[in-house]
Structures
1.
Amino acid sequence: MAQDTRRPNAIRGNRRLPLAGEVLKGPTYASWETTLRCNQSCRFCGTRAGHARPDELSTDEAIGLIAQLAEIGVREVAMHGGETFLREDWLTLISAVAAHGMTPCIVTGGRSVSADMAKRAKGAGLVAASVSIDGLEVTHDHLRNVPGSYQGAKRAVRELLGAGVMCACNTQINRQNMREIPALFHELSQFPLYGWQVQLMVPMGRAADEPELVLQPFDLLDIMPMLARLRLLSDQYGILLWPGDNIGYFGPFEHTLRDQRLPDGHSSGCGAGILAIGIEANGDIKGCSAMGSEGFVAGNVRRHRLRTLWDEAAELKFMRCFDDSALWGYCATCYYAHVCRAGCVWTSATILGRYGNCPYCHHRALELLADGKRERLVRVATAPGTLRDRAEFSLESETAPADWVGRMRELNRPLSK
């Protein structure tokens, strides 16, 4: 799944959530899946990208959408796919975003990005790009299903930087690459990147067919200490390590990861429909482009004005008007429930079928660890093979091995200052 290129222009959150019927002025950040056409076949792709959808927005429709994004207050547009540059009009879209006073960015797998493409993108107004690199060479090429993909991605970084485009990288963490993340950072730190976004793989779309890649909830006890140490190292290189919305929440490393990245120094839950808006390639509108389609599409830009959808559609307002009764399972009992609101909606809804109970939570894993327990996901039904589909998982609690408990407790001690 493509990831955000840059953090949205963050504002200090209002602790009083809007009540039902209240109108938020508008999002500042749009994540736009411009096409599902792709030149890779990633094992973790949440959309099963490869071929363009038959009903993708035309150039005129896309330019009309861009105008409406500007009208509702969007300041930054991150275009992804698939691969945005496989649209014949990709430079036109970049130029249109810039012409409307918004910052155009792209997220790319980087395959086949040439010096000429990078220069033309810069000339069209491209400000920043995030290149997806998901492990060391052998692992990355396996995950991307394309030999040479790793070298192509690194070449894309060089070409974009050479053209004067700000460049970051992004990485999806899964069970195959999680042990390589520190070594991968060493490789990425050779570039003058402005940032590195990391997020957890979510088993949606093609990723639902890869059970060996699916993280277990207790893997966060390995991942979070690792990311906290990498964040301290990344500061030395001047690279902003930006944890994606499904990384957390509220363990001993929360402030280490987010102290200068969010106004309150900690996660405040899912931002879908609050500061962000998502667009599918066919013009369907959601709170976040990562979300599944079923139950989260507010309407289509071909039939509705964005302003109307933002102000009125329940599918865009449910996090603005969050009701604690939506919480269930462990999250309904959690000390941080009123702030976290069960974290990333995409993650919880994909794994367990509905949002409000997120098993990928560091605090939750630590609380279970204190009792010598851990949770395990077991796939009980496969995905049907459609866009943004999901497999079915059961969440089982088990007694953790004593030696593992001891190691995890030691590993998750707060970092010394």
2.
Amino acid sequence: MSERAGPIVKLSAISKSFGSHKALSDVDIVVDRGEVLAIIGPSGSGKSTLLRCINLLEIPDSGTIEIDNLAVFSRQSGEPMPSNRNLDRMTQRARSGTAMVFQRFNLFPHLTVLDNVMLGPVRGQQRPRAEVEQRSRELISRVGLEDKTNAWPNQLSGGQQQRVAIARALALSPKVMLFDEPTSALDPELVEDVLNVIKELAGDGMTMAIVTHEMGFAREVADRVAFMDEGRIVEEGRPSEIFSYPASSRTQTFLRKVLRRNLQT
């Protein structure tokens, strides 16, 4: 568990709608430097939308976003949407300090493991290829796939592909790692290897925001847990507080159902 060192991500009054559906309603949340934040809640509660707003994969309707003390997005309710040029500039700022790992691995099938990991730093960040290759090989080894460096994605299991996706994100040298249910597309026996990699990152002090349905993992690894429902953060606190003494009846009901279902499986 990390010591608090001030906010590196700060979202204020973030709202987002898809048509008539209000996905997020004036959400405020902070992620401190070196902190692991787990975001839990039922399907459709806005967890993934909130995470995707951090790096502007989803553009909020209103609110402000700061990353590493840099204002990357600000829009008041009712104001016109920023121009495409301004949105591009905002998106570049947001993504310069973040990297995201998705539910689906999104590896390029025509590239080897090594080339998948190298692509972002070489093309997107214009870093020297020799430097990137050395670092990429180190990261591939770090996630336990040094013998798969020259393999193609279709030669890997789902868990191995997700570990490549984590190495690819780390290759961008992000200040914040964003994980959107990184184990939800995996067979149960493949989940542990991916979670172990994330646990190691937490132990190394990596700042992370993780949307997850793995309650045991959230309880073990997170410094703080936020429970969402109907586009709002219902409550947040230390894992021991949220899982053992949830204050909200909605949190209590959710955890009771989830933990009962886990016991049955």
3.
Amino acid sequence: MRIAFENEEYLKNLIETLQTGVLIIDAETHAILYANPMALSIIGATEVRVLGQVCHKFVCPAEKGKCPITDLNMTVDNAERVLLNVDGEKIPIIKSVKSTTIEGRRLLIETFVDISERKKMENVNAQLIRDLEIANNELNDFAYVVSHDLRAPLRAIGSLSQWLYTDYKDKFDPEGKVQLDLLIGRVNRMQNLIDGILEYSRVGKTKKEKETFDPNQILCEVIDSLSPPSNIRIIIDNPLPVIHYDKTRIRQVFSNLIGNAIKYMDKPEGVIHVGCLEEGSSWKFSVKDNGPGIDKKYQNLVFQMFQTLHARDDIESTGIGLPIVKKIIEMHGGMIWIESELGKGSTFYFTIPIQGTVPVGGSGGCNT
């Protein structure tokens, strides 16, 4: 049985060019009255084999001749279902069903699209995510094991170096004393490097409960712990917003950014500004200094592991601090970047999403 479009030829042309399968079904008998070319293509059959058949022979195939949907007059919106083509292959589809009445006859308009490729991509992505998780776990375990294996001999070298320094330093000539100082410095650097690797591997591995806290208080604690020299002022430009995040990790971010600004300050009078603005659906924090600045061609390197812009014998650095900061910010759903001009200072910006309803500002204060 065919359904006639009569004077609605333009409607027929429209339906037959759709890249969506369309079936028109008798609501009482469940027989297929019309199938557009895309529906026939997905089913893999001609009109002769499809028209007049009950719809659940193909779409949502019935078991033992029974329709899987008790009430075929129900409305379905974008539901994942299965279509059985003429070769017996199950094809995943998204389908919708609408009920209508035309000239006193109750009909169901069923539309569906083949999502086989999407499901394949979902499976591929799921496998990639599983592989990535395995690789990350293996990398973290490797970093942890290697770092632990290095600690024992490093402690022995450190103890021996300190023993030489304490008991025999006066017996070394000037060159020997320089070399001994370098040895102790290298041991300390290696210890800091191991600690940094372990810290990087731990970020995101164990999730802590988020809490609501005042970053202004955190800044006071960070500044106090860093003990900036008297020639450096740290100014909080405006009260920072109360936020709901991992308090320890956010403290770590501020400690690293402000600590770097202090460490690399090359001006007789250093000034570090900390501020925050609401930007769209995120808080945009900034740590700005009037230090040496960073050449544009090196700005992308600062967030890479083990990258430092100064010789380690000039300024001690592991090159892990900013990668840890980047990992923390991205773990919190934000992003971090730098704007800098050589000789004129740097500004580190980072964003975190605004979550829940919190006061616009905290306590403020704590300028040094």
4.
Amino acid sequence: MLKLGIVGLPNVGKSSLFNALTAAGAPAENYPFCTVEPNIGMVEVPDARLACIAEIIQPRKIVPAAVQFVDIAGLVKGASDGEGLGNKFLANIRETDVVVHVVRCFEDPDVIHVMGAVDPVRDREVIEFELALSDLSTVEKRLEKTARAARIGDKDAQLELPAIKKANDCLKEGRGLWEAGLSPAEMEMLRPLSLLTTKPILYAANVTERELSGKEGKHLTALRAAVAASHEPAEIVPFSAKIEGELSELSVAERAEFLESLGIESAGLDRLIRAGYHLLGLHTYFTAGEQEVRAWTIRQGDTAPKAAGAIHSDFERGFIKADTVSYADFVENDGWKVAREKGVARSEGREYVVQDGDVMLFKFNV
């Protein structure tokens, strides 16, 4: 399951976004530090293909893929030194896959900005600095322990020490570890620390309704330029917390009509999830039977046994083969029976790399 942790300054639309995406009813009043305890919500991954498969199979149950969102209290400049509510809530997003940084890119005199004026480039730098200092606290402790073990001849510690030192030097400058030039092997050594600045970043740019369907405003343009100039491995997804809130109160049919009336192709939720999948190299396959039609999230490049393991470790361990058909062929042939008769459903072995949209039936023996 994809897990996204939401961060940002107070009052930029974090909790409004969380509420709209999850319909969780978290408080979102117009004053700083409204969120105190972390909010956690589950969201179904929108995928029209699932409904089409279910229409053919008519299963007893339909199970979409899911995404978890974690919303924490807003950070402020000096959070690492205890300003505002401090950075104690950052621990709640260390186990997430992607950091969603909500950035305010709209002007509104009725909505307070904690730093006095709207400036998404400055806000980005403030949050990045606080995340780096939070990571630094973790790395400094690890460095002390690793150096001590390396001195008494611990081979693993001696291998790890250069990576820890490199990370420490970068973080001391208030820079994220994506700037540290760490090799894949060094990143793997740091992985158990769950460092925030090693995670992909999704900038959720909170803009006006007009910007979503028309010309981009100066604040969003400035944010794009800053991210591009830094070469940060990140994506920017414009959204409107106001529109997402209105969408959350509508039926599926009404949402499509409302978006069309605004000239917007898709909801912010859809675009955030797609961007998260893209950043992490994820995609979807389906299982389809009378009991259940279900979407499963796996990494691009995963083989059939690995995909089977997403269901249960026994499936991967005892994998024999996988009956497989593409989504397009499955729908065109109205399900498994005709697809098999026409030869478009095939039996795949251990080396098969699962494609996005594959419909699969696993055979295994444990």
